[in-house]
Design goal:
Helices cover about 15% and strands about 50% of the residues. By secondary structure, the protein is mainly beta.
Length: about 425
């Protein structure tokens, strides 16, 4: 099975694909920050190298050009396959890729030091089991993105471009094609400054990378209040006792309008056990606000977060209350709230069990309108987050609609 998946990955490497980033919707509603995003982005930008290629170039025998090309191609494929089998990725907290070295180009001269081009893919086979209805099986390409990560000469500044040209029902191809487009700087110790189009820190899970999610879909508050791109500037700081992510943005999303208003998104995490080197575990207690005005509509989302980790066990709990919001589900002045609790247990570096309770009230003015999702799952990290299999079972309890069950078998590949 493992060899089959790796062989499939090699085939996918030869395919140039650019599609949409799209979350699975588990109910009628469409879809806070873990500041490990600092480490996530560090992995995505190539470290500088002082090494030069001193290998002599062999002059081929032009009398047999076809044989030489064929032999060179087979040798390269064999080396790439061997490198992939030997690749070990134990850190599952940050995004990782399978062919970073092979897909990175380093420049000897000019302002750009290196460029890494990679693609992330997620496929899901979903079995819906509504009551008193026929079963419905759905195969879905839930996420395909192409990234261009670069580092400027000197290593202190970098950039990212993430492409997503697939049209969405609420905005055009042109508005949607550029997701992440920003320049970042690490000149200030413990800090990272970003300017451009990014995913702001709206809540905890809503601002996390799509490639580190514990389930196939985000929690309901993340799907509704966060996980949306905006244009602005932000400062991300990381210390032993505190993390923070503070930014000022245009309240317009995905370039749908030119500065319809201003928005502030910020989140702060305190780490009371930060000086104990993990002896008693890792504890984070945080809170944030995403507030602003878009045209004539004011909105504010307040969120709190508690996370604790000890050895193989983790727990994360988040609550959010909105007096209007400007997230992925769109601009609204509705008063809404929700909460989720997620449990993790890592049996070994390859196998993880997860469980989540997720409750969301889409309109506090309407009584008995909540949607609750009870989810359990297994994550098999074949090559860290770069190649993993996902198995989820979700029971959706809808107070205003029929209950439903879903089984999701998915895969995630980053090449």
């Amino acid at each position: 099975m493992k060899r089959f998946l790796i062989t499939l990955t090699l085939i996918l490497l030869a395919i140039s694909s650019v599609h949409a980033e799209e979350e699975i919707t588990l109910d009628k509603s469409p879809l806070v920050p873990d500041f490990s995003v600092l480490e996530e982005e560090d992995l995505d930008v190539i470290e500088p190298s002082s090494e030069t290629d001193t290998e002599e170039v062999e002059i081929p025998d032009i009398s047999k050009p076809q044989e030489i090309v064929s032999t060179t191609l087979m040798d390269n494929l064999k080396k790439t396959k061997n490198d992939l089998f030997k690749l070990q990725i134990d850190n599952t907290r940050v995004p990782s890729v399978l062919f970073k070295e092979q897909l990175t180009h380093k420049f000897e001269k000019g302002p750009i030091e290196s460029v890494h081009v990679w693609t992330g893919l997620k496929f899901n086979l979903q079995e819906n089991i509504p009551e008193k209805e026929d079963n419905d099986t759905l195969f879905k390409t839930s996420l395909i993105n192409t990234f261009v990560d670069g580092k400027f000469r000197g290593g202190k500044e970098g950039f990212r471009i993430m492409l997503d040209p697939t049209p969405q029902h609420h905005h055009s191809v042109i508005q949607n094609i550029f997701q992440d487009v920003y320049i970042d700087s690490r000149r200030i110790p413990h800090h990272r400054i970003l300017v451009g189009h990014t995913r702001p820190s709206v809540g905890y899970e809503g601002s996390n990378s799509s490639y580190t999610l514990p389930f196939a879909a985000r929690s309901q508050i993340a799907r509704n209040f966060g996980t949306v791109r905006k244009l602005g500037a932000r400062t991300m700081g990381k210390y032993s006792l505190v993390d923070y992510d503070l930014g000022v943005y245009s309240s317009g999303t995905y370039f749908t309008s030119f500065f319809p208003g201003a928005e502030f998104d910020g989140f702060v995490n305190l780490k009371p056990l930060g000086k104990t080197d993990g002896k008693y575990g890792i504890l984070k207690v945080g809170g944030g606000i995403a507030a602003g005005k878009r045209h004539s509509t004011n909105f504010a989302v307040y969120s709190t977060y508690v996370g604790y980790e000890y050895k193989k066990f983790r727990i994360k709990a988040e609550y959010a209350n909105a007096d209007g919001s400007n997230g992925l589900s769109g601009l609204t002045n509705k008063k809404r709230q929700g909460m989720s609790v997620t449990l993790y247990y890592l049996f070994n570096p390859k196998l993880e069990a997860v469980a989540r309770y997720d409750d969301f009230d889409p309109d506090k003015k309407i009584r008995h309108n909540n949607t609750r999702e009870y989810s359990v799952g297994l994550n098999w990290y074949i090559k860290g987050q770069a190649l993993k299999l996902i198995l989820n079972y979700v029971f959706c309890q809808n107070q205003g609609a029929k209950d439903s069950h879903r089984i999701i078998l998915g895969t995630q590949i980053a090449i």
